[in-house]
């Protein structure tokens, strides 16, 4: 992942580099240097950002279905709970 892709991905997820650094428990100074001056953006960052995007999408879908008492809501709620439990 190149620096511009990295910045754009964070922007699309409404994440500042400061917030992202806190979420991944890495110093802000380190996070802002990725992709600059010959420093590579770590390979895992793209995967993490994609998973975060998927999580946000699941949360939006779940919220949209919240008022509907349906099987789809129950299945999404179960899937999201499984994802959230893995984060702990």
Structure description:
This protein has 88 residues and is an all-alpha fold. It is built from five helices and no strands. It has helices spanning 3-12, 17-23, 28-33, 43-65, 71-87. Helix 4 (43-65) runs antiparallel to helix 5. The radius of gyration is 16 Å and the shape is elongated. It starts with a helix and ends with a helix.
Report how far apart the termini are.
27 Å
Form type = elongated
**How much helicity do the residues have?**
over 70%
Question: What is the strand tally?
Answer: 0
How many helical stretches? 5
Helix and strand sequence: HHHHH
Tell me the structural class.
mainly alpha
Q: How much beta, percentage-wise?
A: under 5%
Overall residue-averaged pLDDT value:
87
Spans with pLDDT under 50 lasting ≥5 residues?
none
The major beta sheet can be summarized as: none
Evaluate the radius of gyration. 16 Å
Oligomer: single chain
Number of domains: 1
Give the structure's gist in a few sentences.
The chain has 88 residues and is mainly alpha-helical.
List the helices and strands and how they pair.
Layout: H1 3-12, H2 17-23, H3 28-33, H4 43-65, H5 71-87
Task: Please give a handful of descriptors for the protein shown.
single chain, 88 residues, mainly alpha, 5 helices
């Amino acid at each position: 992942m190149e620096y511009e892709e990295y910045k754009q991905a964070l922007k699309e997820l409404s994440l500042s580099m400061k917030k992202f650094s806190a979420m991944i428990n890495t110093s802000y100074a380190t996070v802002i240097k990725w992709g600059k001056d010959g420093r590579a953006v770590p390979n895992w960052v793209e995967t993490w950002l994609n998973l975060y995007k998927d999580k946000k999408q699941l949360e939006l879908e779940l919220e949209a279905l919240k008022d509907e008492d349906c099987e789809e809501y129950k299945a999404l709620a179960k899937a999201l709970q499984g994802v959230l439990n893995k984060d702990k």
